Structure formats: C-alpha cells, structure tokens
Amino acid sequence: MTEHRTFCRFCHANCAMIATVEEGRVTAVRGDPDDAMYGGYTCIKGRQLADAHNHPTRLTMHQQRQADGSFVGVDSETALSDIAARLRAIVDAHGPHSVAFYCGTYAFQNSAGVGAAHALATGIGTRNFYTSVTLDQPAKVYTVGRLGTWGGGVHSFSDADACIFVGNNPLVSHYAPPGGVPPFSPSRRLRDRLDAGLKLVVIDPRRTEVARLAHIHLQPKPGEDAAILAAIVQVMIAERLIDEAFCQRHVGNLDALREAVAPFTPKVAAARAGVAAGDIVAAARLFGGAKRGAISTGTGPEMAGQGNLVAWLVAAINIIGGRFYREGETSAVPRVFTPGQGPRRAQVEPPVRPWGEGYPASRFRGLTQLGFEMPCNVLADEMLVPGEGQVRALINIGGNPVVAFPNPEKMVRALAGLELLVSVDIRMSQTARRSDYVLAPSMCLEREDITNLSEWWFETPYARYARALVPPPGEVLDEYEMLWELAKRMGVPMPLAGGPCPMDARPTKAEFLDLMSAGCRVAPSVVRADTADGAAITYPDQAAVVEPGADNGVRFDLVPDDLGELLAATLRAPTADYPFRMTSRRSAHVFNSSGHQYAALAKRGTANFAWMHPEDMAALGLADEAAVTIASKAGALPGLVKADADMRRGVISMSHAFGDVGRDAHVAAIGSTTGRLVDETVDYDPITGQSLQSAIPVRVVAA
Ligand SMILES: Nc1nc2c(c(=O)[nH]1)N[C@H]1C(S)=C(S)[C@@H](COP(=O)(O)OP(=O)(O)OC[C@H]3O[C@@H](n4cnc5c(=O)[nH]c(N)nc54)[C@H](O)[C@@H]3O)O[C@H]1N2
Ligand SMILES: Nc1nc2c(c(=O)[nH]1)N[C@H]1C(S)=C(S)[C@@H](COP(=O)(O)OP(=O)(O)OC[C@H]3O[C@@H](n4cnc5c(=O)[nH]c(N)nc54)[C@H](O)[C@@H]3O)O[C@H]1N2
Ligand code: SF4
Ligand SMILES: [Mo]
C-alpha cells in the first residue's frame, strides 16, 4: 500500500487529495490536510473517486457499434485506424468543415483535452469547433471585452468588504466568476469573510444555500435581472456611490450610462422583478458604500435570456465602483500555466469584439465564431441541414449533447444522420449509446495533469503537476494521446502555442503541455521537476504586482451601442402569459450528467425533481412527488414535483442533463431533460447564440 499526493478532477475545483494505491488500484482518497490552498477540503462527489475508477460500468475497451446496434470492445489500433480512415474520407469528399468537434465539461477536466482537440481541429481546418462554454456563460467572456478590461484585474473575494452574487450558488456548484468565492472550501471561506465584516447581497429566485448567509436577499422573478442591475447603477450614480476619481480618469461615457439606465428607477425595476424597491436601494447602498469587492454572476441570469445585458451591467457596476487593483497592489489570480499573459498594468485594455466580421460564420442565424469557437446553438442545424460545409462527423469529447443541449429530440435526429459519431466517455452515456465508436479515456488518477483549470481561482501563484498513480486499465488512452494518434493517421498537423506538435513520435504529456502552454509563467515540465512528491508549489516571484499604466488614452466604453438599444427593448418587452418560470439549478451530488452511477451519490437520487413552492403545489392540488407535465411554447416534459418553501412562488427549479430521449416511462428513475422546453432557433441570444436555459415561461398540469 502506498499513498500519493494528487488532486481531484471530478470537477474544476481540483481539491488536493491523498490517494491510497494497493496492487495497482486506487482504493481510497481523502483530502490533503497539509495543503495550504484547500486545507483538506473535499466534497461528496470527489470522495467517490476510488469507486469511480473501479466502477463496473467504467469502459476499459473502446466500443464499436455493430449493425444490430450492439457494441463490441475493440483495441486502440483497430478503433483509431478505422476512425482516422473514415474522417480522412469524409474530409476528402466534403471538405474540412464536415468534421466537427465538441468539447464538453470533461474535455476541460483533462488539462490537455481542449488544447489537443483544438490543435486537431485546426490541423484539419474546420470552423466547426464547439465547447460547452457557449452553453454556459459566454456573455461574460465576450461582452466584458467590449467595454475594455482593467489590466490590474477585478477585486478578488479574499479582501472584499462587499459583494453581490447574482444567480450563483458557489456553496453547491463550487463555481464562481472572478470576484466570487473561490471553490476550495467555499463555505468556510465565505463564513470567515463574513466574520471579518463582509457585506453580502444575493439575487436569486430561490433562497439558496448562499442566499441564507446574505445580508440582503433579493428574490426576484427569474429573467428580470437586467432591470434590477440597471436600477442599482442608477442609485449608485445618483447617490454618488461611485469612484469619481477613477471614473474621471478611465471612463469615457458615464453620462451615456446614466441616460441608458434612467428609465429603470428602483420602482420600475421592483415592479418588473417582483421585489421591494427599498431592497434594491439598500443593495446599491450596501455595495456602493464599500471600497473593495465585486459584483459577479453565475449561470442563472446568463441563461435567463438577458445574458449580454447582465454581463454588461455587472461589468459597468464594477467599473463605476472602481473595483480594480491599482498600481503597486498585488493583482488577483496570477495563473501560472495560462499562456499569453502580459504584464498587469494599471490601465484600460482596449475593447476587442471577438466575433462578427472577419470571424468564420455559421450557416445559421447570422452567428459567427466567438473567439475560436462556434456557438453550440447552431450545432444541430449544421449537422441536419444539407449544403456546403454540412457537418457529417462529430467527435464528442467528455460531453453529453443529448441531455445538455436544448432541443434533445432534434439533437438525437441530427446525431443519427451523421456518417460518423465518436464519443470519448468513461461510460455508455445517453450520447455514447448513440455513437458509432466510444473511445475509453483514462480517468484522472491514471494520467498526468496540471492545474490550468482551477488556477482561475488561485489568488497566489500556486501550481500542481499530478502524476499517473495507477496504470491505465485495458485499452484506455489519455485524450491527448487519442487525438495525436488520429492526427498522425490522418496526416494532419497539430499546431500548438509553442509551435507544431512533433508527429514522428508521440510526445509525453509533459512535452505536450509545455508546447500547449508555451509562454506561460512556469512551464509544466518545470513544475513537474520541482514537485517530485506530487505536492503543490507556490512561486512567490510570479505574484503579479500591478505596474504603472501607460498613457494609452483608452477609456472604458460603458455603453456599447447595441447593448444600449437592447436594454431599452427590455422595457418594451411584454412578460409572457405563462403562470410559471422554469429555472436551472445544480444538484450537489452530481456534476451535470456525471456521477449518477456511483452508489453513494445515487442514494441521493438519480432523478431531477421539479422544485416548487408548497403553496403553488397546494393551489394546483399536487402532493409531493406527484407526476406532472411541464409545458412551454416549444415542448413539454414529464416531471415529479417536490415542495421547497425556499422557492419564490411562480418559479420551478430543476437540474439539467437528466433523463433521456424516448424514455419518459422511466422518469421516476432517471428524471427528464429540461432542454426539451426550448426551441433553440427561436429563443437564443443574437450575439452569443446562448439558448434560453432558465426563466422559461411554462405551465404545470397534473399528469
Ligand atoms: N437547460 C439547461 N441546460 C444546460 C445547463 C443548464 O443549466 N440548464 N447548463 C449548461 C452547462 S453550464 C454546461 S457546462 C453543459 C454541460 O454539457 P456537457 O459537458 O455536454 O454535459 P456533461 O453532462 O457535463 O457531460 C460530461 C460527460 O463526460 C463524461 N465523463 C465523466 N468522466 C469523464 C472522464 O474522466 N473523461 C471523459 N472523457 N469523459 C468523462 C460523462 O459520463 C458525461 O457523459 O450543459 C448545459 N446545459
Ligand atoms: N454539484 C455540482 N456542481 C456543479 C455542477 C453540477 O451539476 N453539480 N455543474 C457545474 C457547471 S457546468 C457550472 S457552469 C457551474 C455553475 O455554477 P452556478 O452558476 O453557481 O450554478 P447553480 O448552482 O445552478 O446556481 C445558479 C443559480 O441561479 C439561479 N437562477 C436561475 N435563474 C435565475 C435568474 O433568472 N436570475 C437570477 N438572479 N438567478 C437565477 C438558480 O436559482 C441558482 O441558484 O456549476 C458547476 N458545478
Ligand atoms: S469540489 Fe470538485 S474537485 Fe473538490 S472534491 Fe468535489 S468534485 Fe472533487
Ligand atoms: Mo457549465
């Protein structure tokens, strides 16, 4: 028996762990009490890691679909050579865009997953590269850049005096955007900060775990966040709760912002959102009256149809509040492995609009690539609709489009029409079962990884390099190995940040990560060499002190033209005449569609209840766990209701990525897919393509 330091990759938080290995198998994991960042913290999901690695449903052979629909296990050589030959033939016949890649959440959990997939996609030359980012919170990434960004970074949580969390529940999700609670022991971190005097505002239609700790909880009607945020801006400007010196120096058009939000008085916003006007004013005063700390949002408001407005107004609140690190201060989140970070300067970095003209365009809805990825919104249509560039092959890495995308019936039809569907998954998921091939990947404790995902939350230059602790079983391969083997067999290059990936002999993971991260603060192989025992390391000399700003003349553009118009339009928008709004939420014991198979997690339920206020249930004559049909204008799903007095009345709350297409009879065992309530061709954001995934107008009837 041996013990090894490592980190969990069940989710992005990457908790430090000690794994016990006996006879080539992981038999136990526990939090690493000596790790300064995590202090021994783990969650219920991560504690299943040993079970997950050894689980009977775990694939150790690649699966090849037979003519009768059954699967047989095949070795790597057979699977990769056949897949590569078929991809080659499709590209030769139909051009590079006929091959698409989709990177789901587990492509991100492998530190080389998305990088390797993008390198292969670039080598092939396809514009059809998709990731779960555009199902998640794309407006955050793409809208903020349009106002300009502050080189010194936004205030982080650890020294905040006041924070506003909008539709974010980090105590369950272990997720927070910059300024929010880092996901390591989030509950302890938040309580410690509150004890030290932090003032907290939470805006969420449900009284969530984090809302219970807030000084002010606004419990609005879902989908009305833009009005509330506009009113907060209005109060902050009117009551001069802004950083005037900062605004004078760095803001271009404060007056334009004042005008844009003028119609959204606290009274107007309160009426739209169904909250007390006095609470909006109090929230603005509580936040605006402090000096440090940021407002941030989670998935809730981004998915609720106003993603761009919300991301814009949140950025505007941080800007007028001056919630940034200044010259001489230590900037938050130094990020050891992220390439391309220049010096942190006390200046506004010019706005960039990473989409639209000059970016590869989809054939649908006028949407273009955002940065380097095509919005998930168009994937089903790109597969279904004939024409130049129609997608005929999809490589799905660590994702589950059948249950995670809107409009699952359409997704299933689109996947069925492909010439080749390959999934990389540890189990026969809803999407894997519909694939021609399922490639079996190594699981986290069988492979090397760096903390390039979690480092977005490290407030010090902390880094880890995990070793493979046990040999990969059967035929399994690391995702980067599979993708390299496909590139090699197809005869295409894999361009990486540090130059082309060698294609004569397969690089080691450290070599691959070095090339992928070229230009980062400390190369992965250096961290590897510095941490022989797998423990963490901190590089104090890499802490980023904010340097003086250049006089670059750049100021924040507080009101990008199209957003000002969009805000005005929300005032005119009628509210739908459906009695309920369906909202999204996370469940603590699973990660999207992952984890339902593990005994300890399954004990907490494998179906997703439709949570409602008990008085709403009584009004409809529904008992706990009664079967209902939940219907929107686009579709309907079966559900089981459950009472939760913490809900706002008129709101339903359900987790996504449960259920399956064609298996409604099993709803009590597997739940159902909330994506069925949305037609992605109608309800989507015109800039990012994000489909409506929360605040969906619905009715509920007893089944
Ligand atoms: N209605 C609605 N829809 C939503 C959302 C919502 O809130 N509401 N949320 C959206 C969000 S934020 C996201 S990120 C997407 C998620 O979208 P996806 O990423 O497509 O969905 P997941 O369920 O996370 O898929 C993960 C897959 O990886 C597999 N897996 C598990 N472990 C491993 C591993 O070690 N290696 C590999 N290769 N695979 C593994 C799992 O079995 C699973 O099939 O869903 C989006 N869809
Ligand atoms: N245990 C667990 N952890 C996870 C996941 C999981 O499935 N399980 N999924 C992971 C993924 S992919 C992601 S992206 C992150 C997401 O992390 P979070 O964004 O923190 O996700 P949630 O916990 O769903 O919190 C979203 C909150 O938004 C609220 N909300 C819904 N609609 C609205 C609205 O219109 N307005 C406002 N103001 N609030 C609204 C919901 O009630 C909910 O409390 O979590 C990650 N972590
Ligand atoms: S929070 Fe995430 S990384 Fe930490 S133990 Fe849980 S699943 Fe693993
Ligand atoms: Mo996500």
From TrEMBL:
This is Molybdopterin-dependent oxidoreductase. It holds the Pfam family Molybdop_Fe4S4. It comes from the Bacteria. GO terms for molecular function: iron-sulfur cluster binding; metal ion binding; molybdopterin cofactor binding; oxidoreductase activity. Belongs to the prokaryotic molybdopterin-containing oxidoreductase family. Residues 1-57 form the 4Fe-4S Mo/W bis-MGD-type domain. Keywords: Iron, Iron-sulfur, Metal-binding. PANTHER family: ASSIMILATORY NITRATE REDUCTASE CATALYTIC SUBUNIT, TRIMETHYLAMINE-N-OXIDE REDUCTASE.
